[in-house]
């Protein structure tokens, strides 16, 4: 049996919570998904909503969400091409979780608490 060092981190990916965090965890995915609950959005609409995310990171996060079956990417045959992102039926099942996270964030703020990660170095909100 391999010996774990004191710096090793063990994550049980059989755990349902670990699976959920693996799909929607991170700094941006939850916020992207929350904004998609209002309906389909074009790439630049999402980008304007999240001014602190880099173009590369937004593309990466959207691709991962698409790969995991949470987000649908629709390419319209127009000139210039139009691309829209929306929640898939599987992604729609996250709506209650995203609403609960929003409500909990409001509750947390009402307690006088402010998480360290609510703003970027520039002081702008993530949402």
Automatic annotation (TrEMBL):
Query: Keywords for this entry?
Result: DNA-binding, Transcription, Transcription regulation
Q: Where is the HTH hxlR-type domain?
A: 15-113
Q: Which SUPFAM superfamilies match?
A: Winged helix' DNA-binding domain (SSF46785)
Report the Gene3D superfamilies cross-referenced here: Winged helix-like DNA-binding domain superfamily/Winged helix DNA-binding domain
Among the Pfam families in the record, one is: HxlR
Going by the entry's taxonomy, the superkingdom of the source organism is recorded as: Bacteria
Q: Matching PROSITE patterns, A to Z?
A: HTH_HXLR
What InterPro entries does the record tag this protein with? HTH_HxlR, WH-like_DNA-bd_sf, WH_DNA-bd_sf
This chain belongs to the protein called Winged helix-turn-helix transcriptional regulator
Q: Could you tell me which species this protein originates from?
A: Paenibacillus ottowii
